[in-house]
Design goal:
Layout lengths: L2 H32 L21 H20 L15
Length: about 90
Amino acid sequence: MAAGDTLDRHRKWLVPLAVVLGVVLIVIAVIYWVEPAHSLPSFFPGHEEGSDHHHVKHGIAAFLVGLACLAFAWFNTGPKKGGSKTPDAD
């Protein structure tokens, strides 16, 4: 089995995983922007009881990583590189 075959096999699982992770991170970003720190779920970083502060930087970070995951998935679903598939010029 060639190394390229192994990479293609793993890529089949990485693309849907990247899409799901990207969407989840964008939803988390919106939660950070909308909810104050005391209303965040207790397992979120930045949860502070009694605080009305919004964690804008946490939201920006989650949004950018989510976009990066979606870009990774998009670029990995494009056509495969192959020099022999171009039509011959007459």
